[in-house]
Amino acid sequence: MKLKFLILSVLFFTGIGLQAQVKFVAKVSKDKLGVNERLRVDFEMNQDGDNFRPPPFDGFTVVGGPNQAVSNSWVNGTRTYSKTYSYYLQPTSRGSKTITQAEITIDDKVYKTTPIEVEVTAAVDKPTDGDNSELIASENLHLVAEVSDANPYLNEGITVVYKLYVSPRISVSNFREVDSPKFTDFWSQNIEIRELRPENTEYNGEPYRYVVLKKAVLYPQKTGKLELEPLTLSVAVDVPSDRRDIFGSRIYKTINKTVAAGTKTINVKPLPEGKPAGFTGAVGDFKMDVSTSKKQLNASESFEANVEISGNGNLNLFELPALEVPSSLEIYDPERIENVTTTLNGKQGSIIESYTIVPTRKGQYPIKPLNFAYFDPETETYKSLNSEEIVIDVAASPLGTRNNTIASNQKQSVQLPSEQFRFIKTDTHLNPLNQQAFFRSWVFWGSLVLPFAAIPLFILFGKRRDAMAADVIGNRRKKADKLARKYLSEAKKNLGHQQRFYESLERAMHNYLKAKLHIQTSEMSKERIVEILNEKNVALETSAGFIEVLKSCEFARYTPASDTAQQEDYDKAVRVISKLDKNL
User: Fold this and answer.
1) What distance lies between CA 391 and its chain's CA centroid?
2) How far apart are the C-alpha atoms of 387 and 370, rounded to whole Å?
3) How far is CA 433 from the centre of its chain?
């Protein structure tokens, strides 16, 4: 019995030792090939390792690879793991070649493969490459990111277009996105692609077909070297094999190939020094128009004044000049109207701020000229636009105007009513003098009792006022609601319309900092905003909340957001503005 138990124990621990044994081997698709054929070499391991170092492949040219494949499975409680690095080699000459040792580090221990001898003969009539479907797919499938300008100015619009190039040697049956670029440090806007249309072109001097998969317009928000993350796709590729059907046609083999566009580096230049007055971060080519619906009107009537900036550039990322009017003209907060479309040429359209103005007195009132400055990246210079002075002629009120007209025109005929003169009535209706006096009347007693009856009301009102003053949380909430109405009113109107909501929410957060700290946040990164808030001794939690709202605005440009998510972001912005106002 003891002998049996000893044998089972030895077998059990031997099995564990064999299972834990590391295997690292090299395999070739053939050990004899012609000089016009290709060789596939696989380096396989049964445990994951680090610092893989392939051999120098003397006597060969690497025409494909390394391609990496990982397999991990569980069968009856037993784990099977395999990792393979594959290379495709083209011999440079005939003769005996040696594929020397490859190395891998597993658990701080270096493992090496056994050298393999390969014989290269003269060229063969019908060369075969073995199982090189991965190589064929790699050589004939390319995902490319094309950037319109790799050296833009701050806030200058650039475009990035992702194209998938496919050689006529293969075909693509399906694809899906594995990872989408996040466009960090850019204000981005995706351009909708309604239909994928293949077109013919050339790639590296060979005929190809391509299809545009993704288009976006980017406005860099910080200077220096910024990276565009790659777009990654999983593509089902139909690759021709060496087999043929009964009609002699080549049979295709479908493989899944992961391709990436590669990381692009954008070198963003700062705007030149010497920014003129009236510059708020506008970059592009713009025009300004200031107009009014009326120039002559009566007092107490209203008219509209519109400030319009139109053109091509970062239309949503700067402030329009504010309209200034004399004190006798009552002006209301403007309504912002955005007519902007996004194409590969950038943002085009107009931004209008419409003011409602009501004159209160008669007279002539000038509306001061406005100054608007922008940077033109085509000429690399700042340009200023100035409007003309507008004079509003306000007459008297309609009633005063009618009286003055009659007084000044003495010669017009006077039309009298038919009953202009009436007889004086001779019958009188007199009241008797024996009515009840005021003393001891119900009015007398009511006036006497009312002040005493009002005392409890004054006491209740005082307690109510003290309770409201002591309600710190309630007062803070009211103040937060007031700030929210001031800065977030436009965002609240756009709830349910994702693009307009997040654009107005981001603009409101920047406007709040601009009003409180007198800074131009459109030229700052999120890191710089955090530094400024830290200098103002703002709590880290509040700063993080502010940045989180800005990130939500950025992510919403390329990811869908539900109405519930928009409401949560709006509520979060209200809380952040309330906390910031308390700290600042």
Assistant:
1) 42
2) 5
3) 86
Give me the amino acid identity at 439: F
Q: Say yes or no: 232 and 291 in one domain.
A: no
User: Is residue 530 one of the residues assigned to a domain?
Assistant: yes
pLDDT tens figures, 519-571: 665 556 777 788 888 888 888 888 888 888 888 887 776 566 677 778 888 88
Q: How far is CA 535 from CA 289, 511, 523, 578, in A?
A: 40, 19, 18, 19
Q: Supply the CATH number for residue 125's domain.
A: 2.60.40.10
Q: Is residue 229 part of a domain?
A: yes
User: Residue 194 is which amino acid?
Assistant: R
Query: Of 142, 123, 124, 140, which Cα lies nearest the Cα of 132?
Result: 140
Judgement on whether residues 476 and 547 belong to the same structural domain of the protein: yes
pLDDT at 416 over 50: no
| Residues 150, 119 within the same domain | no
Would 411 be classed as within a structural domain? no
**Shared domain check, 371 and 476:** no
* Number of domains making up the chain: 4
3 state SS of 63: strand
> What is this structure's pTM?
0.51
Helix-helix angle 526-535:498-517, to 10 degrees: 40
Please give the distance of CA 100 from its chain centroid, rounded to a whole number.
Answer: 51
Beta strand 390-395 pairing with 296-298: parallel
Question: What CATH number does the domain containing 363 carry?
Answer: 2.60.40.740
Residue 356's Cβ-count burial label (10 Å; 0-12, 13-18, 19+) is middle
Does 97 reside within a domain? yes
In the prediction, which pLDDT does 151 show?
A: 95
Q: How far is CA 293 from CA 71, 119, 297, 324, 357, in A?
A: 73, 90, 10, 16, 10
| Both tokens assigned to 33 | 């090939």
* Dist CA 531 CA 527 (whole Å): 6
Q: In degrees, to the nearest 5, what angle opens at C-alpha 64 toward C-alphas 60 and 69? A: 120
Last residue of a domain, one of 268, 293, 310: 268
Which of 384, 269, 375, 387 lies closest to 323, judged by CA? 387
CA 305 to chain centre: 32
Q: What is the C-alpha separation between 384 and 374, in angstroms, rounded?
A: 7
Range of the domain at 83: 20-130
Burial of residue 467 (CB within 10 Å: 0-12, 13-18, 19+) is: exposed
Token pair belonging to 210: 């391509």
93 and 121 housed in the same domain: yes
Q: Whose CA is closest to 257, among 378, 376, 136?
A: 136
Distance CA 11, CA 484 (A): 75
Annotate 500-512 with DSSP letters as a single string: HHHHHHHHHHHHH
**pLDDT exceeds 80 at position 269:** yes
Per-residue pLDDT of 398-407, as tens digits, reads 554 443 433 3
Query: Per the structure block, which two tokens stand in for 403?
Result: 């009286």
Q: How far apart are CA 519 and CA 532, in angstroms?
A: 10
Residues 125 and 161 in one domain: no
pLDDT confidence band for 339 (50 / 70 / 90): very high
For residues 50 and 142, state if they share a domain.
no
Q: Which residues pair with 365 in a beta bridge?
A: 392
- What does each C-alpha distance from 231 to 425, 466, 518 come to in angstroms? 100, 61, 39
381 and 481 share one domain: no
